[in-house]
Amino acid sequence: MAFELPQLGYAFTALEPSIDAQTMEIHYGKHHQAYVNNLNAAIAGTDLEGKTIEEVLALGSDKPAVRNNGGGHFNHTLFWEVMTPGGSKEPVGKVKEAIDNYGGFEKFKEDFSNAAKTRFGSGWAWLVKNSDGSVSVGSTPNQDAPIMADAPIKGTPILGLDVWEHAYYLKYQNRRPDYVAAFFDVVNWDKVEELYNK
Q1: CA 67 to mean position of chain CA atoms
Q2: What's the pTM value of the predicted model, to 2 decimals?
Q3: Which of 27, 32, 71, 174 could form a disulfide with 143 if both were Cys (CB 3.0 to 4.6 A apart)?
Q4: CB of 80 within 8 A of CB of 9?
Q5: Dihedral, CA atoms, 198, 56, 137, 21, nearest 10 degrees?
Q6: Which DSSP category does 86 fall into?
Q7: Helices 64-81, 189-197: crossing angle, 10 deg rounding
Q8: How deeply is 169 buried, as exposed, middle or buried, from its count of CB atoms within 10 A (0-12, 13-18, 19+)?
Q9: For each of the chain's 198 residues, which pLDDT tens digit applies?
């Protein structure tokens, strides 16, 4: 079964003013769709066809077309899920406990923001759950995902921020820090908690 663009779950306008409708429409409908199309083309007729996206990334990350497009599909799918109109301002439940143990919400926000702002070129900032239940913050280049064996930060991603220019340039131009700050206004902490508990 071929991969498909996931349902967004909210309107393109729903995350304004943090993320503008035009960026959402292009980012979701053009960029993410291209990753899906290119991933399906890359795995067609191979032993990766019919596998989950996690299996594809575990087995095929040594193939550039699979790594880039599979990572793009996986990362973006999570990105849309961890945002919600109006946001939910602070972590809840077990993920709150893990962030408190990390050093608290303000330290997490500072470290996550720095990971996003200092990622050179294109990439992602991440909050990941480790096997012992603790959390870590870091970033990956390009469309690399923390579930890839050779990712610079490893773990189960529960919050991700796209810092490719296509994610923010129409509204924020070169002001990536403003985009990073605005992201916290639309984070869906209930979803992050759900992902943590999986």
Answers
A1: 15
A2: 0.96
A3: 71
A4: yes
A5: -90
A6: T
A7: 120
A8: middle
A9: 699 999 999 999 999 999 999 999 999 999 999 999 999 999 999 999 999 999 999 998 899 999 999 999 999 999 999 999 999 889 999 999 999 999 999 999 999 999 999 999 999 999 999 999 999 999 999 999 999 999 999 999 999 999 999 999 999 999 999 999 999 999 999 999 999 999
Give CA 141 to chain center in angstroms.
12
SS3 (DSSP) at 126: strand
How many angstroms separate the CA atoms of 39 and 65, rounded? 7
Annotate 107-122 with DSSP letters as a single string. HHHHHHHHHHHH--SS
How many Å apart are CA 138 and CA 198, to the nearest integer?
21
Say how far apart CA 198 and CA 193 lie, in whole Å: 9
Coil/strand/helix, residue 156:
strand
| Strands laid side by side in the 135-141 sheet | 135-141, 123-129, 156-162
Q: How far apart are CA 121 and CA 82, in angstroms?
A: 23
To which residue do tokens 């991603």 refer?
Answer: 157
Residue type, 129: K
Q: For residue 106, what are its two tokens?
A: 């303000």
